[in-house]
Amino acid sequence: MANPPVIEANGSDTSQIMLYLRDSNNNPVTGQNVTFDSTLGTVGAEGDNGNIYFATLTAGTVAGTATITANVDGSPFNITPATVILNGDSGDLSTAHSTLLAAPLNIEANGSDTSELTLTLRDGNNNPVTGQTVTFDTSLGSVGTPTESGNGVYTASLTAGTVSGAATITVNVGRSPFNIPPVTVTLSPGVIDIMNSVLTVSTDSINADDRTGALITFLARDAHNNSIPALGITFTTDLVDSQITNMSHSDAGYTANIDGTKVGVANISVQSSGTEIAGLTETVTITPGAWNQAQEPPVVAITQPIGECFQIPSGIFQRKIVLLDSTIIYDNYGNETTGNITMTMFAGNALTTNSSTITFSALPNHIMNTGITNRIVLHNDNFSTEALCNANGVTQTNVTLNIVNLRDSFGTYPIGLTLMLGTGS
Q: Domain Big-1: where (predicted)?
């Protein structure tokens, strides 16, 4: 027999080996030359006490099962051998010989996926170390209770939480940190969830001159609100002559710019690896750019109204002396736009059907919108009927107008155009 039956292979632990020698009648047999052999470690300090023969097994540095046999007077004694288990040295744990592994190394952060963690614990002589209290710590997810499967192998399951990222797993042996290099398990986000994903534009309106345009931002997130990188995201627009530029992505999301040269509404969609993600759209309205100052013909034309009268809201009639036709204006890409024109009408006169001459005062800083016909009337007229007004209608107006500038939402542009009716002012 051997006591204790388990020691550590540390080069110093011992186990007492004892043989109780009896004859076939169960009588004690004394005075024999008894020796012991062992397959591991060394046997020494042999002695006896009556029929009890003993020795000391001293562990070596190789773990395993030591099988001890006895020899009596130089001949093998075929008694059942004693065994002593030599475990690895728990006082000399080796990070160089031990291993920490995880499989698989990538799981989904869905609250249920698992990865198997395995610590193979060995001492400085590369012997497996059994019977230790081993725990695993993780920076993400959770780790179950470890089990020892024998031969110094300890396993536990890492269960993913719902936060994506890198789970760093470390080990404790006997409640003390075991400084083996940590193992990392990637907790990947799940598939795109449109309820948590966000598509935005920096502005819902840009003009046709804006080559930077609006910034498109897409934050791809899964059902647990984790960001999803590397999805092959692209943006599309359905508006003619609009374009998506500067596509890029980072951990923060996916970005691009949209601009265009034709007015309209651009519907922006998101594609992942060429497939549109349903339910994610944004719009950007493209408005006209600045007025094209090279536009022809001139922005204002002047004509003579012949015998025309105009009824004002009070019900009286007044004679028209000038008609101003403002053309529709366009931006540099042919989009129709709007503005207003500032002009000055100098003092002048008008001839009537009854050969009388009427003078009128200057009209400074008169403003009219583009794309309309503007009438200038004699504000002192007070005809009660249109017939009476026509009977005294204007046949010729002599006046000069100076078209000062045109103003749109982008700026004011000097024009300096002089127009005359008749002999001018």
A: 1-87, 97-188
Burial (0-12, 13-18, 19+ Cβ within 10 Å), 393: middle
Topology given in CATH for the domain delimited by 198-287: Immunoglobulin-like (2.60.40)
Q: Which pLDDT does position 90 carry in this prediction?
A: 92
Domain ranges for the chain, please list them: 2-87, 91-188, 198-287, 300-421
Cα-trace Rg, the chain: 51
pLDDT recorded at residue 296: 82
Amino acid at position 380, single letter: N
Is domain 2-87 given the CATH code 2.60.40.10 in the classification?
Answer: yes
pLDDT above 90 (res 45): no
CA distance 114 to 187: 10
Extract the tokens encoding 50: 């009556």
Sequence-separated (6 or more) residues with CB below 8 Å from residue 260: 206, 208, 213, 237, 239, 241, 242, 243, 266, 286
Give the model confidence (pLDDT) of 268-278 as tens digits: 999 999 999 99
Both tokens of 127, joined, read 């012997």
Fold exhibited by the domain 91-188: Immunoglobulin-like (2.60.40)
- Biggest alpha carbon–alpha carbon distance for the chain: 168
In this prediction, residue 425 has a pLDDT band, given cuts at 50, 70 and 90, of confident
* Token pair of 336 as six digits: 């129709």
What pTM value is reported for the model? 0.73
